[in-house]
Specification:
The protein is elongated. The strands form ten sheets. The protein has a four-stranded antiparallel β-sheet, covered by helices on one side. It is an alpha+beta fold and 461 residues long. It contains eleven helices and 28 strands. α6 packs antiparallel against α11. InterPro entries: Restrct_endonuc_typeI_TRD, Restrct_endonuc_typeI_TRD_sf, Type-I_RE_S_subunit.
């Protein structure tokens, strides 16, 4: 039984291709080369000399889903013949031929009027396709980025030194089912309308996630600098950028609440690596408030004993130094005794909850100190000396516990909403992909599709 709101075609035929299955009876099935008049490799030319340079687009200017993202395009010195042979025109399709990732191999962008006005060419790691007059470029673009074609690219591409490679011949060999020209317009309008609607929903969910993340961060920052009681009497903290704090709170430097602040293995850590042994945490294992327990590297037990300075214990905190500096997590019981590489280590604090300290270290006020330091100057690299001088507003221990419990509950609720929104986005993306594939392979008949708002008015108003 058909579950789709759009009906199937009245009659189908066997495409002769197992993975394509049946296609509408009147559609043409054959290799893609039957539908294209140009299938050309790109150019790279020479380094620019400041005179008569040409923009040469690269695969890095293409997103995985086949859109342009042209921020800082390369300019090259091309000969007249190179420029003439690779100058892009509106409606051209540009395909990535080489990539170390199956997500990028075969990604295809369509040259818009704006891109064509840039008078640009394309690199030698890309292939330009120009469709014949009876095949709409927009429909070809949807088809090239559909699962049905990208799967063929993955199967056809050869691998050399970890790179998957396509060439013009392979691209021309992919099998496609092509409707008559008049029908192509209906399919393209349908996909445009439906994907636009789905993309709007995705954007709304992404905006919701961004707002939830901002609220989560603001909630933490307020709780660890102002407390939970809105009526509490405040006092000047004595620190300009911190402002007022509850009257009964203290202000201390990190070095005064931790018995030791040090750093993990920094000199040739790879020489200690073994296949199995003691986990050694790296920055990619640290997220805000938690340890990511995957992609561990391991060192031997002997190395862990010899490197006791960086060995971690239950309740210690680890802080990222570069990339996302200041990101902090507490060492849990199951990682007691592990080691770490190039992370700041804050030994379990004295008379301060390690979980409260982690919340503070992940707050905006702590991140400001990590980024700019006490004196307000941008820091090039977060180090032990900077960590020691981080200023922390501290409530009594009982209040620390209350704040930790409150934030655990509230951030858990927010994280659930964020997770649900991300799941919904994934479902929308899956639906978008399947809808495009269904339309370009004729599994649904959209010839009667009428875009919203384009219905004809009745004459008896």
């Amino acid at each position: 039984m058909n579950q789709s709101p759009w009906p199937p075609y009245p009659k189908y035929k066997d495409s002769g291709v197992e993975w394509l299955g049946k296609v509408p009876e009147h559609w043409e099935v054959g290799p893609f080369k039957w539908q294209i008049e140009r299938n050309d490799g790109g150019v790279w030319g020479d380094d620019p000399d400041g005179e008569d340079s040409t923009i040469v687009l690269r695969s890095t200017e293409q997103t995985v889903d086949g859109r342009w993202q042209i921020d800082a395009p390369a300019t090259r010195k091309l000969s007249e013949s190179e420029r003439a042979s690779s100058l892009l025109s509106e409606g051209d399709l540009v395909v990535t031929k080489s990539s170390g990732s199956s997500l990028h191999i075969g990604k295809t962008t369509m040259v818009s009027a704006e891109v064509a006005e840039m008078a640009c060419c394309y690199s030698n790691f890309m292939q330009r396709l120009r469709t014949k007059a009876n095949f709409m470029p927009k429909l070809a673009w949807y088809l090239m980025n559909s699962d049905i074609i990208r799967l063929q690219f993955n199967l056809l591409s050869s691998s050399t030194t970890g790179l998957a490679n396509l060439n013009g011949t392979m691209i021309g060999q992919v099998l496609v089912a092509v409707p008559p020209p008049a029908e192509q317009a209906s399919i393209t309008v349908f996909i445009d309308r439906e994907t636009s609607r789905i993309d709007t929903l995705i954007s709304e969910k992404e905006r919701l996630i961004s707002l939830l993340q901002e609220y989560r961060q603001a909630l933490i920052s307020h709780a660890v600098t102002k407390g939970l009681d809105p009526k509490v009497k405040m006092k000047d903290s004595g620190v300009e950028w911190l402002g007022e704090i509850p009257e009964h709170w203290e202000v201390k430097k990190l070095k005064n609440i931790s018995p030791q602040i040090t750093v993990g293995i920094v000199v040739e850590p790879s020489k200690y690596y073994v296949d199995n042994g003691v986990p050694a945490l790296r920055s990619l294992n640290i997220s805000s408030g938690s340890i990511i327990k995957e992609n561990f590297v391991f060192i031997s037990n002997e190395a862990n004993e010899a490197l006791s300075k960086s060995r971690l214990n239950l309740g210690d905190l680890v802080v990222v130094r570069s990339g996302q500096p200041g990101t902090t997590a507490v060492i849990p019981k199951e990682l007691d005794g592990c080691n770490c590489i190039d992370l700041i280590i804050i030994r379990k604090p004295i008379d301060v909850s390690e979980n409260y300290l982690s919340l503070f270290m992940n707050s905006d006020i702590a991140k400001l100190q990590v980024t700019f330091g006490i004196g307000g100057a941008i820091q090039q690299h977060f180090n032990v000396g900077m960590a020691q001088n981080i200023v922390i507003p501290l409530p009594p221990q009982s209040e620390q516990t209350s704040i930790v419990l409150f934030l655990d509950q509230e951030t858990s609720r927010i994280d659930t909403l964020i997770s649900e929104s991300r799941t919904f986005i994934d479902l929308l993306k899956e639906y978008r992909s399947s809808l495009i594939t269904a339309a370009v392979t004729g599994k649904i008949d959209v010839r009667g599709f009428t875009p919203l708002g384009s219905e004809k008015k009745t004459t008896d108003e």
